[in-house]
Amino acid sequence: MNSLSLTAIIFAGLAVAAPTIPFVAPNAVIPLTHAPTNAPTLATRQSACFVIGKTTLPAEVADVVTSIQSAVTCDTSKKTISGVPDVTSGDVTFSSIDFSQSSQTPLEFALSKFATASPLANTDLQTFQDELNTYLATEAGIRSVGGSLGIKVPKFFLEYQVSRIQTAQGNPPTDAGQQVDHLRDKVLKNAAGEDQSLLDQVTALATQLS
Prior knowledge:
single chain, mainly alpha, 3-stranded antiparallel sheet, 8 helices, about 50% helix
């Protein structure tokens, strides 16, 4: 074997053994393999018409936004509490059941406006769910701008009523946070400054489940 052939063999071996180094242009953008952890929240903000501000929502509220946003529409020409657009779910529009426009206290308004049928099981669950959706959406919008949360009293009361109706209709919530006793306590806690006779009415409702 002559020296020229030997040199060719050596270079061929080096070419096989050498690792391939990809060329990367100086201004190339290398994509991330994982989306940023806040991507779902950002997407939710962009698609939920009622989340109008930039204040970070609590995780629980952000989850609610995700669950209801497809059922809620906004009338951006009409504003309600804290500048949140008037929202609609089904046949219910928030402005038609807005506690803040009443001369009653929040709990007094809730007890009178969101009363159930008798017997309880005959109550139209969908109507109450739509009413609740408008309150949940408006609350999320208020939170997004750091507004006052007086809405929590009627909102929790609506959740309470929905839970009572579901229980009476044979479909009690399995989530402990949505069960009657837990929501009763939520209403009582947030309405602690209300008249005792109103609080007693809330307590009594927890025993009326048929």
